[in-house]
Amino acid sequence: MAEKEEVIGGFNFKQSHGKERVRVGRVWKTSNGVFHFVEWNVSINLLSDCISSYVNDDNSDIVATDTMKNTVYAKAKECKEQITAEEFTILLAKHFTSYYKQVTTAIVKIAEKPWKRVHIDGQPHRHGFELGSENHVAEAVLSKSGTIKLSSSVEGLSVLKTTKSGFEGFVRDKYTMLPETRERMSPQQLLQHGGTHSFMLITFQQNQCISLKYTWR
After folding, report:
1. How far apart are CA 190 and CA 203, in angstroms?
2. Tens-place pLDDT, residues 197-216
3. What is the pTM for the complete model shown?
């Protein structure tokens, strides 16, 4: 969670306020009758000049969490054209840093559920979707000066290999009962920063994995 640090009475004072787990679903329909759907879990953190709310019982500079939540819904509805999670994080961050003069930095993070279009008889269905396993995550950090940091990742990608995995050469002492092996099943849940989805799958499935850390070197 983002925090802003101030010195008050000789003490370092950190404050942050925001809203997490704002669930929003958005449907777009094209002119030829094809539907597009996203489900986002949005988290917002605002750095702002609002120390008075902590030391003087003055909430006049606080953006309420209800306001943040409703802003997400309103801005999603305003998007008449389909946009990505990255684009929506930037859109929200720009709104909060420009609409509220006291907000110095906005941090917006979106986890997108992996809804994928259903294929029937080899053809993509116009309005049918199925849920995958991994989440697409985007985060934008935008300051009022216009400096922006944008990142994307994949979280919760579940993979499994039924062979070409082992675990050996670890510390053994009187408390160890686990036998060493060069042949075992290996299920994993992965977090990807950068690279491609296919590269991760190829690396995991094709390499002999005696040490998981060595596999992802």
Report:
1. 12
2. 555 566 666 666 666 555 54
3. 0.76
170 in Cβ contact with 210 (< 8 Å)? no
Structural domain total, the chain: 2
The CATH number linked to 93 is 3.10.270.10
* CA pair distance 71, 73, nearest whole angstrom: 5
The domain containing residue 47 runs over which residues? 4-156
